[in-house]
Amino acid sequence: MRQANLERLYRAHTSSPVLLLLLLLLLLLLPLLVWSRNSEDETLQKLSTSSQNRTAVWGEQLSGAGVSAASTADDFDVTSSDDGIVSDDGGPRRRRRRQMQEQDGRPPTLSHGLMHFGQARVAMVHGEISLGEQLWSCHQVANVAHRSGACAAAEQQIDTKCAFLELGGPGLCAFDLAKRMPSIPVNLYPSSRRLAELSLPATGSLESNFQLEGDLDQYNKGHPVVLQINMLRGRSSLSYIGMKSVAVNLLSRGAVGAAVMTLQAVSSTHLQLQFLELVGIAVSSGFSAFWGGFDGQDITSDLGRVLRKQQYGHRSINIFLLPRDVAAKEAPSPPPNRPPPPKLHVLVPLRPQREDERHGLTMLLCRFLLDTAAASNLSSVHVIGLTATGTHLYHQNSLIQKLMVLQYVLEGPDPSSGMRPWVDISPSDVVMAIDATDTMSQLTSEEFLQRYLDAGAPVFHVSAEVNIWPPPVSNYTHLYDEAGVNAVPLPNKYLNSGCFIGRAMVLKKYVQDAVEFVKTNTKSDSSWLFRQHVDYVDDQGVMSFAYIMGNPYGISLDHEAAFFYSLYCATDHLVLSCGAIMYDLTSTRIGLLHGNGHEGKSRLEDLRGGILGDFKPDPEFRFLVDGVVTRYGDTCVNVPPLVFGRPTVQCPPGGAQPEQTYTTRSVEPKDCPARG
Question: What's the pTM?
Fold first, then answer.
């Protein structure tokens, strides 16, 4: 049976005549490549003895299973560096590219590395899969193992019969779950067995609950499995035919208690259709499909919408599957163990550097964000840092103050400090972080959350703008090209960190890594940021490099302005209709307007007048300040108009500086909806 499993899953590497011809050509050229590599760099390390032994053992196992050992060429040559990071030499071509990157200031890119993921250290190909999206998926897998009636008895801890099976990818969830939840049997079929064998000693102390390519016939109705399938591009992927065969076999035997299926970002149309076919097989077997989480949008009756909504989204597709209650008489009912919808927290960092700044910042907060929040009924606003005392939230660089305040809120205070947390945020909750003094809202809290779920619940979705900022990032424009943003037919192509929304646990991980780097100019082994030697300047620089350098956090950009719109050199596409500012290129009622840059801030008063008209905020409108319920009338008193002089700027390509901030669309008053 083990031989059959391996043949099914790895068939793609051995069944193609073209591949055999390529391998034959590689063998003929191998002496020349070896000579060239040795002549270029005599200091390259050879495989360690332990790695050689593992490779030899794997070759024997594959040969015994009918798989050619030559297929290991897909894994490259792995060496152990002095700092313990597993990297690959990749031959003279990759080394020349690395030298070119060093010459233009771009840090060298390693094909393989050991990444800290939860409690595991996993050897993986850089950029192979989004760590942020996998972090969220693994959290969901662990939770459903607790709740699922197929895996656990009600009101009890995890049943030892519950199991987890991961197909494809480096095994991030498999190694992490095996490490921190030893009562769950874990089985992994990785894309690269060699890298998985490197992950075993790196993670260490795995109990007998972990199997590498274990028997698949052990799963049945009495011994169900939570299944995770990672469909990756190119050589990082297992055979689709093999994964489909395994999934059909498990589903037909009723052995699947829940499933998560991930399609890597920027996949081919062919791979997308294969992915939907696999999801469709699960749906036809009695499962409901949810986009972006078990608490996400139900797409069971319209699986194709994930591709339609991904038109400008360069991120993975994650579908979560739970069995429907097929015992219902009228029609299948929703899964009984589905978690409740997430809560939305609108966090507004506002931390004065000096006490004499507090009043002026509060007036800006009232004039734009709180006035429009009262009009749009954005009821979940939480201003954080305004009244805090002490120096633990201060930093000499005020431009990263926002990150430090967010870290404090997302982590909570040190338990030994005796301080109370400002807000209780679950890892599954949705956090929207926005700048405090130059933003205006047009949607209710419920509308923001609904748009988030409709968009597939992206784990880390960030505002976009027409300009590349800060200046050091403009030296890496070619990396934006590689990320695919230039293919987006909209002017707001580049990252703006003023506003972002996502899952709390993913944002928390990013903020922790970013604050650590900015405060110490170093990064720990557990950080997902790449080692850099560039001046980040501010929080936008940190996030921009996190996006263009491998994007480990799963950042996606809001090109369509479904949530945020950056105003700098971009107001020529704004239309005022029924007291709301619309983005005319996508016919979208913008959720939140952000006056980035001096040019953007100079447009705020015009836009405020168009949005509010003669509306007067209710003094009883409530919001939170550092965890305390606060009345609008107690905070915003005698707020004057705040007019910024409009500077003359050189707008980037795709941007413009029109005289009028917006155009007006003529609409009959009776056709306009009532103000929320």
Answer: 0.82
Distance of CA 31 to the CA centre of its chain: 43
pLDDT at 105: 38
Q: In this structure, how many other beta carbons lie within 10 angstroms of the beta carbon of residue 615?
A: 13
Q: Where are the beta strands (DSSP E) in 515-672?
A: 555-558, 564-566, 574-577, 580-583, 588-589, 592-594, 622-625, 628-631, 663-664
Pure H helices in 459-594: 471-474, 477-483, 504-520, 539-548
Answer for the pair 486, 584: CB distance below 8 angstroms, yes or no: no
C-beta of residue 65 within 8 angstroms of C-beta of residue 6: yes
pLDDT tens digits, 2-51: 555 555 555 444 444 555 566 666 566 555 544 444 433 332 232 233 33
Alpha-helical regions (H) of 221-292:
240-252, 269-284
Q: Where are the alpha helices (DSSP H) in 323-475?
A: 358-364, 371-376, 401-411, 445-454, 471-474
**Bridge partners for 259 per DSSP:** 227, 321
CA distance 535 to 607: 34
Read off the tokens for 121: 């250290």
Write out pLDDT tens, residues 504-542. 999 999 999 998 887 777 777 888 987 655 565 688 988
Using CA atoms, how far apart are residues 126 and 124, in angstroms rounded to an integer?
6
190 and 230 in contact (C-beta within 8 Å)?
no
**Locate tokens 């993670």: which residue?**
203
Q: Which distant-in-sequence residues (6+ apart) come within 8 Å of 591 by Cβ?
A: 441, 442, 443, 447, 448, 451, 561, 562, 563, 564
- Rounded distance between C-alpha atoms, residue 148 and residue 407, angstroms: 32
Identify which of 383, 354, 426 has the alpha carbon closest to the alpha carbon of residue 626. 383
Residue 321's SS3 state is: strand
Tokens of 138: 């693994």
Q: CB burial class (10 A; 0-12, 13-18, 19+) of residue 442? A: buried
